[in-house]
Amino acid sequence: GCEDLQPKLNVIAAALKFEIGQANLAAKSLQGLDSLVQIMTQYPQTKLLITGHTDNTGARKINDRLSIARAKKVQTYLVKKGLAINRTLLAGLAEKQPIADNTTKKGRAQNRRVELAIQY
């Protein structure tokens, strides 16, 4: 059922890594997004919340735009692959929800991410 989806979404999202100041999707993250379209097809009543995040470098205004741009990149790809746009919701949290230490290069890389969640 749907409750089994979140772990799969977390794995797909974990592959969505971004360079500093960039919103481009790495080719290796596209495979996961392709499987996400298949998953969403199996659950036609669900919507997908796509949330973009940044690290803490750069101005807040830029990070706000960048976090939305990252979420939009994922949305655009999924729609291109056949997911109806009205089944997606976008959010951008900039640097407000770090999952790693922003004082290290590795931590900042982990914070530059997109998270995926099913909305019922």
Kindly state the number of beta strands: 3
The biggest beta sheet is recorded as:
3 strands, mixed
The residue-averaged pLDDT reads 94
Measured by DSSP, the beta-strand proportion falls in 5-15%
Query: How would you sum up the global shape?
Result: globular
- Order of H and E elements: HHEHEHE
Return the structural class: alpha+beta
Low-confidence stretches: none
Distance between the termini: 12 Å
Proportion in helices = 40-55%
Q: Measured on Cα atoms, how large is the radius of gyration?
A: 14 Å
Tally of separate helices: 4
Description:
The protein has 120 residues and is of the alpha+beta class. Helix content is 45%, strand content 14%. It contains 4 helices and 3 strands; from the N terminus they run ααβαβαβ. The protein has a 3-stranded mixed beta sheet with strand order 2-1-3. Helix 1 runs antiparallel to helix 2. The two termini are 12 Å apart.
